[in-house]
Amino acid sequence: MAENTKIEWCNHTFNPWIGCQKVSPGCDRCYAEAQNAFRKWNGGTWGPHAPRTRTSIENWKGPKKWARAAALASKRSVVFCASLADWLDNQVPKQWREDLAALIEETPELDWLLLTKRIENFEKLAPWRRDAVPKNVWVGITCEDQEHFNRRWQCLREINAFRFISYEPALGPLTLGDARPEWILCGGESGAGARYMDPAWARSMRDQCAAKRIPFFMKQMTKKKPIPQDLFVRQFPNGRSKV
To answer: What is the pLDDT of residues 146-197, one digit of tens each?
Structure first.
């Protein structure tokens, strides 16, 4: 579960554990649940009463290898954590999060993207105070529509860290208002039964980002259809041309 990745906006994905449960409409067609049903990493079950399964010791060695390689190359690497779980899931043992925090702090050559749909759990469950997040941690929220953006941003804005938004799957239009995250990723849903993302929603977000000088990354259209040329914008933060 630690691997190089096909995700265009990071270099690696790392799953410290596997398992989650649905908390909002963006979860309805969860790719992790579908993959788990087939691969049975977690026994094939999902949800509040399913186990959260910690990944192997060997898997946990992956980030230290990436950090050494990044140091040798004098180039930072970006790690998405976790694609098959939620790091602020309240069903996860406290010690696991503390072990993850220790790993993050031992790998300063890596930028860790911690994405959650449970940002309201930060103060209670995160291994750091909101004013003491390590510099190599990027805290992100999934915001599938205006309702969930409004609620989750109110929590994220109080955290002193690099803050990003995953507007994916985009299920409705979204207006940023006075919000100024450091990065926005945008994408439509893929897979069977994918819900439609109106390209106008993505264009609106692209224009809002341009007006606020927020890097914008257009990941994919609904069902991974070709991205229109005017929407093919793939910007990275911190002046990088790519991660």
So the answer is: 999 999 999 999 999 999 999 999 999 999 999 999 999 999 999 889 999 9
pTM above 0.85? yes
Q: Where are the domains of the chain?
A: 2-231
Residue type, 161: A
The radius of gyration computed from the CA coordinates of the chain, to the nearest angstrom, equals 17
Contact 16, 6 (CB under 8 A): no
Tell me what pLDDT residue 239 has. Answer: 63
Beta strand 77-81 with 53-54: parallel, antiparallel or unpaired?
Answer: unpaired
Pick the CATH number of 2-231 from 2.60.40, 3.20.20, 1.10.3470, 3.40.50: 3.20.20
Diameter of the chain measured on Cα atoms: 47
**What distance in Å separates the CA atoms of residue 233 and residue 72, rounded to the nearest whole number?**
30
